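Severity: low
Component: inverse-folding endpoint
Summary: output formatting inconsistent between runs
Steps to reproduce: submit the following structure tokens with default settings.
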């Protein structure tokens, strides 16, 4: 069967993966309202394409924190990739590098920062969870920097793990042949079985609930890497992040896995962009499955987007080739959307190229 779009990988992953593993990747928090909304909110944004523009040459390249990449489509951090495929994060790193884009490695990767660096060249960011033991955090950040990682994506929406009912039902635990490779030598690499979700118990035991804005400043004292704050969905927190020295903001609701009934990230994006006032780049994470979604995010002011689930589903289906295909499909669709909207470079994509629900409810000025 010819795969023609990114979404088709989910059904293949569901067939191939053990139920506990598929449910871990696919599910959201509680009622999963935000999980659905992350997708559906995109469908309520419509295009205002411009015509009769020479679109014979289209340039999708962009610069993120000073690094030139081939397109504004990057890879979000997703944990435990070796549950999807034996090559796990190695495959994802190679696919991202081949596509000329950025991969973000999860703190909870099943391959270490050093192992991922050994796959060859590539621009890589490191996603950080802050553990109660700050020595562990400092050591990990230094290791990432030594391994050539270029930025820290600090996850700020997880002082506790969201209630993911599928994981509770399945009593989710990391399969025994796998470990949290970045923490292996620190005796924090194993996750114990639990009466509910093994991951929820691990987080409750290890992750620092006292994390606050002062810690964003503390991180800047231990590393020269720029810090992206991941998990911001309001104007208030955008301003605080910039005050705290963030180099960029990732608008994210953790793939709808933390607090249910928060808005879709595409719905929260414009508020954050307006509050940032161009002082730092703003990125979007969550719900992107089409090149049209990428265009909509950029039209609303994002400097780029990150994809998560499409990576693990395609990894489960076809390994590295699957991840390469997902990046290529999104790239091709995005290029086509640009052409059909009359945009030849990213700077041509403006707010006037789309119409949102909010716009439809505004009174139209009489000409």
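Observed output (run 2 of 3):
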């Amino acid at each position: 069967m010819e795969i023609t779009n990114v979404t088709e990988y989910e059904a293949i992953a569901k067939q191939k993966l053990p139920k506990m593993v598929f449910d871990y990747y696919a599910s959201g928090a509680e009622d999963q309202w935000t999980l659905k909304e992350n997708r559906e909110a995109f469908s309520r944004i419509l295009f205002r394409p411009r015509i009769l523009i020479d679109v014979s040459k289209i340039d999708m390249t962009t610069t993120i924190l000073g690094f030139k990449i081939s397109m504004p489509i990057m890879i979000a951090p997703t944990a435990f990739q070796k549950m999807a495929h034996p090559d796990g994060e190695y495959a994802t790193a190679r696919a991202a590098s081949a596509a000329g884009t950025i991969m973000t490695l999860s703190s909870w990767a099943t391959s270490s920062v050093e192992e991922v660096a050994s796959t060859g060249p590539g621009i890589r960011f490191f996603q950080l969870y802050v553990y109660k033991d700050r020595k562990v955090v400092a050591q990990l950040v230094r290791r990432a920097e030594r391994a050539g990682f270029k930025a820290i994506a600090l996850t700020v929406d997880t002082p506790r793990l969201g209630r993911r009912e599928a994981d509770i039902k399945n009593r989710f635990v990391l399969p025994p042949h796998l470990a949290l490779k970045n923490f292996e030598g620190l005796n924090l690499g194993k996750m114990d079985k639990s009466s509910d979700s093994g991951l929820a118990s691990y987080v409750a035991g290890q992750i620092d609930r006292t994390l606050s804005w002062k810690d964003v400043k503390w991180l800047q004292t231990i590393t020269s890497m720029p810090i992206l704050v991941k998990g911001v969905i309001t104007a208030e927190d955008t301003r605080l992040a910039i005050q705290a020295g963030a180099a960029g903001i990732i608008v994210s609701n953790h793939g709808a896995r933390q607090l249910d009934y928060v808005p879709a990230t595409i719905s929260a994006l414009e508020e954050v962009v307006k509050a940032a006032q161009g002082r730092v780049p703003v990125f979007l994470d969550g719900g992107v499955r089409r090149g049209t979604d990428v265009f909509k995010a950029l039209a609303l002011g994002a400097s780029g987007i990150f994809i998560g689930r499409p990576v693990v589903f395609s990894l489960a289906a076809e390994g590295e080739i699957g991840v390469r295909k997902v990046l290529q499909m999104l790239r091709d669709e995005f290029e086509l959307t640009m052409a059909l909207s009359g945009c030849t470079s990213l700077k041509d994509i403006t707010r006037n190229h789309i119409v949102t629900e909010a716009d439809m409810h505004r009174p139209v000025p009489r000409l």
